[in-house]
Amino acid sequence: MAIDYPRWLECSLRSDHAGELGAVWIYRGILWASRDTQLRAFAEHHLFTESQHLIDIESILSPEYRSRLLPLWKLFGFIVGAIPCLVGKELVFHTIDAVESFVDEHYLKQINQLDSVENVDFDFSSIRELLIKCRADEILHRDEARDFATTSQSQFTKLWCKAVAIGSRIAVAFAMRI
Ligand SMILES: [Fe+2]
Ligand SMILES: [Fe+2]
Question: Could you give the 3-state DSSP secondary structure of residue 119?
Fold first, then answer.
């Protein structure tokens, strides 16, 4: 049975669902584009976690509340994963660092929001636990990517990562509404 969340929470969870779907497709994009053993092991490991996040969010957000732009989020994820592979694996690691840093902040904002609301009609605790768990995994993903990146960021990498972060922010704004 579909749960009727407060509107603001429905929007937040819709963006989380879109984001986790996008994340799954980032790692699929990497696995499609790269033959590098280290990169593939990295992507397979992260893909496993993101798939679990997606299942978890799907279990609390029924299809009628999900974004209507899901094919677009898949495509964007795939592009964000596959394009850096064509440049080199360093760029992939910096890209994942940028994406996961964004997701870390995104989840933190939502966790803080849940902490600040006073709604006696609704028990947010299980959603809060889920977001905390997802956030902890995203931080591990970010740190792993950061550790694997052996070179510092070039001007091009900085620009690309900034574009990825801005793109993520725009995607969240759309996914909250559509
Ligand atoms: Fe995730
Ligand atoms: Fe992640």
Answer: coil
Is residue 176 over pLDDT 70? yes
Q: Which ligand is in closest contact with the Cα of 142?
A: 2
pTM of this prediction?
0.91
User: How confident is the model over 102-137, as pLDDT tens digits?
Assistant: 999 999 999 999 888 876 677 788 999 999 999 999
Contact of 19 with 175, CB cutoff 8 Å: yes
d(CA 172, CA 18): 8
Longest dimension (CA), the chain: 52
Please state which architecture CATH assigns to domain 7-177.
Answer: Up-down Bundle (1.20)
How far apart (Å, rounded) are the C-alpha atoms in residues 106 and 15? 10
Domain boundaries, the chain: 7-177
Residue 172 has pLDDT above 90, yes or no: yes
The rounded Å distance from CA 159 to ligand 1 centre is 24
pLDDT at 173: 95
Ligand closest to 99 (CA) is 2
